From TrEMBL:
PANTHER family (UniProt xref): PTS SYSTEM GLUCOSE-SPECIFIC EIIA COMPONENT
PROSITE patterns with a match to the protein in the record: PTS_EIIA_TYPE_1
Name of the protein in its database record: PTS glucose transporter subunit IIA
Keywords assigned: Kinase, Phosphotransferase system, Sugar transport, Transferase, Transport
The organism of origin for this protein: Kitasatospora camelliae
Length: 149
């Protein structure tokens, strides 16, 4: 079983409240979302593993069980073309849970007209495979978001 921890501090809001139908409809996969604190911050790895996808606004870490966890920083942030995001690791790097992956500023994303709400998704998982899903309340960096069996 994999425990997926929060890559950001903020408030858990659940996928249903993400202002994007692809995420809110769990088309990418089940999970939850974080409404992050509005200050410059670092998104950290939610699991130990291999960075298999890396973009300024999103990354996927695959753990030893073959579970890929997507962290998507904000909604429609791909349209910012990387502006305001600083990559701290590269695709192919091994990372440890809690290791900083991307520096960004949720307040700047919001000022640019995008939502800073950040989905954390279990790729290619069934809803039934997830347990203990955090869908409300304050979340500290590194708090458990869900387990994946």
């Amino acid at each position: 079983m994999t425990t997926v921890t929060s890559p950001l501090a903020g408030r858990a809001i659940g996928l249903a409240n993400v202002p994007d139908p692809v995420f809110s409809g769990a088309m990418v996969g089940p999970g939850t979302a974080i409404d992050p604190v509005r200050e410059p911050t670092e998104a950290v790895a939610p699991v130990d593993g291999l960075v298999v996808s890396m973009h300024p606004h999103a990354f996927v870490v695959m753990d030893e069980n073959g579970h890929g966890v997507l962290t998507h920083l904000g909604i429609d942030t791909v349209q910012l073309n990387g502006e305001g995001f600083e990559l701290l690791v590269a695709k192919g790097d091994q990372v440890r849970r809690g290791q900083p992956v991307i520096k960004w500023n949720p307040a700047a994303v919001e000022a640019a007209g995008k939502s800073p709400i950040s989905p954390v998704v279990a790729l290619e998982a069934s809803t039934e495979a997830l347990g203990g899903l955090a869908e409300s309340g304050e979340i500290a960096l590194g708090d458990a978001l869900f387990t994946w069996s």
